[in-house]
Automatic annotation (TrEMBL):
Keywords: Electron transport, Heme, Iron, Metal-binding, Periplasm, Signal, Transport. Residues 37-124, 134-221 form the Cytochrome c domain. The keyword NADP does not apply. It comes from Duganella flavida. Transmembrane segments: none annotated. GO terms for cellular component: periplasmic space. This is C-type cytochrome. Heme c 2 binds at C155, C158, H159, M198. It holds the Pfam family Cytochrom_C.
Length: 221
């Protein structure tokens, strides 16, 4: 019996291999190519926007070179490229729904998100400064050592001693506007901005503690 069916089995096996190889080749062909990142195009979009699509210039809110002068709008200059790209993607999902940025992020192509992020990371960030002398020590204590009794970890453990952050995962915080940082901590606390880590931490902090650490962060260099 084996000698009768052996040719058939062999033929079937060869056919299956051929089909598998074809499918694999098709998958390879259909895989999207990595975007060709062009910081110059990102600069043009940031500076001029795109009137044809109703996309305003990013500079109008985030300042020349990404150095915002409006305290509720973040400074973007020198921010990690991977983190910036991720946030632009997040604005198009339920992870970070914000009326203005969600609207504009949805108008950007994936390639444009990469381009803008690639340009911003190359821009020199202008330093900020702590403003409240009365809370500077509290902010420093929280940033460097956390709040042990509330099980709040040191901010520096993720964002670095100087606030430089870790690409993609944790943003650069040094020099960031106090008002913006406080607002984001509030959004994490309310669950409006999604992050398991930051939501847990923010919920354990008082408004005074959030303001103190945000003020301290603004003066980091």
């Amino acid at each position: 019996m084996n000698s009768v069916f052996s040719p058939f089995v062999k033929s079937l096996f060869v056919t299956l291999l051929a089909v598998s190889a074809t499918a694999s080749a098709d998958e390879h062909k259909s895989a999207p190519a990595a975007p060709k990142i062009d910081p110059a195009k990102g600069a043009a979009l940031f500076t001029d926007g795109d009137n044809a699509r109703g996309l305003p210039a990013c500079v109008s809110c985030h300042g020349a070179g990404g150095n915002s002068t409006i305290s509720v709008n973040p400074k973007l200059a020198g921010q990690h490229e991977g983190y910036l790209y991720k946030q632009l993607v997040n604005f198009t999902t339920a992870d970070r729904n914000q009326p203005i940025m969600t609207t504009y992020a949805k108008l950007l192509t994936d390639e444009e998100k990469h381009n803008v992020a690639a340009w911003l990371v190359s821009q020199a960030a202008k330093p900020g400064a702590a403003k409240n002398k009365d809370t500077i020590e509290l902010g420093k204590k929280i940033y460097r050592g956390g709040i042990a009794e509330k099980n709040v970890p040191a901010c520096a453990s993720c964002h670095g001693a100087s606030g430089a952050g870790i690409p993609v995962q944790y943003p650069r915080l040094s020099g960031q506007h106090q008002d913006y940082t406080v607002a984001q901590l509030g959004l994490f606390k309310a669950g409006t901005r999604k992050s398991v880590e930051m939501a847990t931490i923010a919920k354990r902090m008082s408004d005074e503690e959030m303001k103190a650490v945000a003020d301290y962060v603004a003066g980091l260099k």
